[in-house]
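Reopening this ticket.

The earlier resolution said the output was attached, but the attachment link was broken on my side. Pasting everything inline this time so it's all in one place.
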Amino acid sequence: MFKKKYKSINMSNLIELAQNNDNKAIEELIKRIQNSIYATIFYLDPKKENINDFTQEVLLRVVKNIKSLKNPKLFKSWLNQIITNMFYDDMRKKYREPNIISIDANYDDKESSSDNINVTSPIQLEDYHPRPLEHTLSLELNDLIKKSIHKLPDQFRLALVLREFQGLSYDEIAKLTNVNVGTVKSRISRARSKLQEYLKGYVA
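Inline output:
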């Protein structure tokens, strides 16, 4: 009965229960978000051995800080902020550079001032899911795309994943990453261009 009850609760109410130390609600919340977190981190972090640990750390932070979320309807943005902050922390440790966030700073001023940045591409990530009649080929292509995404510079990869896999708007990504919208568009455009280069000969 309890499982059915909690499974049927909408997200906002579930979060409110979790904020009131309802362990069943916390368990259900974790079940609902863990796969999404794992998938996002899979594309953000090329080191596969880190994915489970990274996912667990995100979940721990969610549980520990859930009471600080004032508006349950903003949970997705709040969760993305946790993931993004952890990604930046990991970047700083990896590169040991305090200004790593400005990895593409040389391009920001010039390109973020343009309103004509090409933010579309013949490559559409949503088309990469395997289809029944092309199962084997699609699996191989999917793996190739994952590897190609992992080759992207950190900032490009983060912007692309937040846009294509988390479905965030350019404004939301700009707020999460502390840059302007033009820079976000530039990074995503460059990420897509690089993917096209990596996948040249594999994707028409």
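Reporter confirms the inline version is readable. Residues 96-137 have pLDDT under 50 and may be disordered. The chain is about 65% helix and 0% strand.
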